[in-house]
Amino acid sequence: MTEEKRVAxxxxxxxxxxxxxxxxxxxxxxYIRNISDTGARLTVESAVGIPDTxxxxxxxxxxxxxxVVWRQATEIGVRFVQTVCTDLASKI
Length: 92
What we know:
The chain has a single domain (11-82), classed as Beta Barrel (Thrombin, subunit H). Helix content is 4%, strand content 51%.
């Protein structure tokens, strides 16, 4: 069994979002699969070409700066690097 390393508990969700970078000139659609106040797990068509840092735009218009912690073929684990909103998981 693996040891849980997360600081905050994650909540399961299935919300749409967009990964934006390069001055928001490029956007990649994604789904937010789980979320906490400190990070999220995203599903994408392909993790190839997604930079190590980017902005995550939620359907509600909220934007969070993210840093990739891990990546697989179609999933990315991110840490929120800027605290813009407390109790984010309850707002999504």
